[in-house]
Write a structure and sequence with these properties.
The chain is an alpha/beta fold and about 170 residues long. It has one domain (about 5-170): Rossmann fold. The protein has helices at about 15-25, 35-40, 45-55, 55-70, 90-95, 105-115, 125-140, 155-170, and strands at about 5-10, 30-35, 75-80, 95-105, 145-150. Strands 2-3-1-4-5 form a 5-stranded parallel beta sheet. Helix 1 packs across helix 8 (about 155-170) and helix 6 (about 105-115) crosses helix 7. The structure holds shikimate-3-phosphate. Shikimate-3-phosphate binds near residues 35, 82, 119 and 121.
């Protein structure tokens, strides 16, 4: 990935952070989790940022974290699941990155997301219906990635290996 980042897009619970960290390690590149950057900057979890400042402010912080990470040395970047659908983000990243869509069935994404931090956009109501609605609104953005890897497997190493192989051939092509 000479000179280019790899940005992973996909639903909450698609494995962007887990698979991204494994890919970064295999490639010997830094791994940047954009939610973690925002959490550090604000000193509070995403859920509280949404609650206290609103989604619009979170999206602004996300745009700033995106710009900073794209300026840094080439790495593997995992934004949150809503990032790809925000105007301008995909276009900005594409200039300096390969984009990969980590695709999972909404039910699997939901089960995995339930084990992590609270996702404000999934809170309350019927989880699967909410996850399916997120996918319906975002799939056309995720599909603009350069390549798609299915991550329905239990083991994140499978998707990570596929991505590493893709990156290696994309960078020499
Ligand atoms: C969001 C997904 C979250 C986080 C925020 C908003 C979304 O990240 O950025 O809660 O809009 O889907 P993950 O995809 O890592 O859960």
């Amino acid at each position: 990935m000479t000179g280019r980042h790899l940005v992973l897009v996909g639903l909450p619970g698609s494995g962007k952070s887990t698979v991204g960290a494994a890919v970064a390690e295999a490639l010997g590149r830094p791994f940047v989790d954009l939610d973690a950057v925002i959490i550090r900057r604000m000193g509070m979890p995403v859920d509280r940022i949404f609650g206290e400042f609103g989604e619009a402010r979170f999206r602004e912080l996300e745009r700033e974290a995106t710009a900073a990470s794209l300026e840094a040395e080439p790495g593997v970047i995992a934004p949150g699941g809503g990032w790809a659908a925000q105007p301008g983000n995909l276009e900005q990243a594409r200039r300096r990155s390969h984009l990969c869509y980590l695709r999972v069935a909404p039910g699997i994404a939901l089960a995995r997301a339930a084990q992590g931090p609270v996702r404000p956009l999934l809170r309350g109501g019927e989880g699967l219906a909410r996850m399916m609605a997120l996918l319906a609104g975002r799939e056309s953005f995720y599909a603009q990635a350069d390549f798609t890897v299915d991550n329905d497997h239990e083991d994140p190493a499978t998707a990570a290996a596929e991505i590493v192989a893709w990156i290696r051939q994309a960078d020499v092509a």
